[in-house]
Amino acid sequence: MPLPEKLQKIVEYRGVEGLVAAKILTDNNETGEGYTTGDVFAIAGVAEITKAVEQGSEAHYYDNIPAIVIDSVGADTITINASAIPLDVQAELTGQTYLTAKGALVEEEATKPYFAVGYKTQKTDGSDVYVWRFKGKFSLGDLTNTTKDNGTGANGQSLTYTGINTTHKFTATGKGAKGLVVDDGLGLAVVSTFFDTVTTPDTLQAKP
Known about the structure:
Number of strands: 10
Radius of gyration: 20 Å
Distance between the termini: 36 Å
Strand content: over 45%
Number of helices: 2
Order of helices and strands: HEEEEHEEEEEE
């Protein structure tokens, strides 16, 4: 018996671009506010993005047998390898101060704000996959500076984004959400304005 058509096509992910973010302004279920964000801005060039999901399952025993399995899902950890991040963007992501008139970042204790983060990846069949992660905080990774030599070595920067569910429950699902992933290869959703603002399950439009 032949496989269904959708299983006959084998693809992999290859490529990532367009790393952007937007500050979360509100995230609640109050009428008139809900989930809102600020302007979308570019972070840096992106080389690699890795997502790890904290999750687990545990059997609970009754009458001496494993009767039910309890599932748990924690935070997502998004590890980003990027080019050198501009100082004003570093300040924005980490809640620190940027002295605009002096082009200087003040490294200080700060309360990190929540952000949405977006990017686009691609499959080996050429179709694009569009992603928004809805709520999380950024941490800057280690930065290594090395002496110049006669080679081509250079270093970018790493970011870690810890993502959680929104407090706001979207109308489309009745639940909070961590993110939205759209496969443009299916040709079902409008993605031409996907990164103009943070696209959510409620604002994503189906093609007519």
